[in-house]
Automatic annotation (TrEMBL):
The lineage of its organism: Bacteria, Bacillati, Bacillota, Clostridia, Eubacteriales. CDD domains: MTAN. SUPFAM superfamilies: Purine and uridine phosphorylases (SSF53167). One of its GO terms (molecular function) is adenosylhomocysteine nucleosidase activity. Pfam families: PNP_UDP_1. InterPro entries: Nucleoside_phosphorylase_d, Nucleoside_phosphorylase_sf. GO terms for cellular component: cytosol. GO terms for biological process: L-methionine salvage from S-adenosylmethionine; nucleoside metabolic process. This is Nucleoside phosphorylase domain-containing protein. PANTHER family: 5'-METHYLTHIOADENOSINE/S-ADENOSYLHOMOCYSTEINE NUCLEOSIDASE (PTHR46832), 5'-METHYLTHIOADENOSINE_S-ADENOSYLHOMOCYSTEINE NUCLEOSIDASE (PTHR46832:SF1). It comes from Butyricicoccus pullicaecorum 1.2.
Amino acid sequence: MVAVEDDALRQRFGEGRPTKDKMGVTLYQTKNCQLYAIRCGAGEIYAAAATQYLIDKYKVAAVLNYGVVGGCTDNLHPGEVCVVVKVAHYQYDLFAVDNVPAGRYLEYPDRLLPVSTAFTELASPELRRVVCASGDKFVGDAAEKLWLHNEFGADICDMESAAILLTCDRNRVPCLIIKAVADSLSGGAAEYWREKNQTAKSCLDYAVEVIDGL
């Protein structure tokens, strides 16, 4: 699953075989498995819907999300690929009713939602393990990124990871989230547009290593 950068899939696997379903899923054959690829669109709602669709329609054994993110610290630069091990859904806020901090889902032990180790441990050990702050907003402002880092310990930020992780957990399907930094701490939208295609390709290269190792 990818939000917006799908050219890397075609470059890697060719055109694939369109399933002609309502969500535009394309089937690719990798070395060891079938890969149902979907471009979900940006944002938590689109990502949750696409994740549930893949699980229900194709009975997938796992969900792999790759794509580009923003860096929330000054030591993450465009092109760096990371493995997400925890997610903070920072816009989810029940404080006024349950007196719990923003990001806290009561069925989890704290507000950093863990990603299953079933596949994160298969990713290259050279990749940095990170916390991703996820919400329905493109964060381009350096001060806001730093706030996400200081408040949640976030290394990166995106618009899909929380939805994918929560949907997979509800369905007891493991997921792997591999992200590449497109815009650095102070890069903003201009850097995102300049870097997103190449960084998405680099991200997919690492993701395919995990797929081929299954």
